What we know:
9 strands, single chain, alpha/beta, two-stranded antiparallel ribbon, 7-stranded mixed β-sheet
Amino acid sequence: MTNAVSLLLSFFFKRTVSVVIDLHCHTDCSDGSDAPVDVVRLATELGLEALAITDHDTLDGYDMARKQSDLAGCSLICGVELSTHSSRCSRSVHLLAYFFREPGSEFRSWLQELREGRCERNILLQQRLQSLGMEISWSELEAISGKQLGRPHFARLMVKKGYAASLQDAFDRYLAEGRPAYVERNEPALEEAVERVAAAGGIATLAHPARITRDPHTLRSLVADLIPYGLNAIECFHPEHSAEDTNHWLAIASELDLAVTGGSDYHGSYKPDIRLGTGRSGTLHVPSSLFLELKRRFAETVVNA
């Protein structure tokens, strides 16, 4: 294990380290419960040095949050989370993208196309739930959804109407992949998404790789194949990662000379056990050195563009 990996692991496991950055969170512009201004306010109260808003298929949360004047030293990073498909994985593969300069109109137009695909999926999802005997109307969904309707809003309505005992129960029995109401979305190929992020001047990061596989050899092969398309980093620090997972992902990032990212995957009340900055049970600690390394690598991409 390299010294760099050992250092990062020490940050992860030392509980007394203060919270410094969070590079993965969601607002009510996608499937989070909190408005962008409230997430930014919480980040400043926690003393975060950097925060990335990474809503699904949209930059609206970042656009709203950057207008706030009370960041109090917290660097706000433009980000987005993309759902993709890969022939090497049976489930959706998520890609995080970070931008240190404004992505152009072409990338934003592509995000709009992805959101339209989500709308089509929502129509089918409503029909699927109705076929299962649940009275779910658009007016009810619109009353509880934020700026982008997603499965958490369906789950909240299902709980409200007594079709599920909790949000988790709604996903476990109906909405998760492989369950009766799940509807696949027409997602872009993983390689295409990486290329589009790179072309827009962004840093492409493989999100929560433990959801893809916990086998380090399989993940290393996938990551190595994505590097020629423009993959820059791996999200090694995440609440769903075990100590062993984190160890493996850090080793892969070090071996392949990739940057390391991490974040809480905060969704507000939709994931009440996850706290901004510290994840689940206060076990997440992402050092500011990762943020500095991302900025260094971004500077290189600008020079090499």
